[in-house]
Amino acid sequence: SICVSILRGTELIPDDFWPTLLAYSVFPLVLLFWQRIRSVILRWPKTVFFDKLCIAQHDEELKRAGIFGLAAFLDHSDNLTVLWSKKYFSRLWCTYE
Known about the structure:
Number of helices: 6
Largest sheet: none
């Protein structure tokens, strides 16, 4: 709604019902289909794995399942880039990587 307000305020879209409705309807479409849109535009979608976000930190059983699932993820990866700090090797799945 901020983008629509800015576009209407700068008169890039008219202050009418239909252009506003069109602008608001684009958001859910992009939200729902962004991965497909991106794969059509880029032809090779990039996938990024963040261990802090992708492995559950609150439940030990889910964490263990996530660590065991790393092998399949790494098997389908072309590159591995590791950004680490002093705490890096204090976490089991980081050592596993």
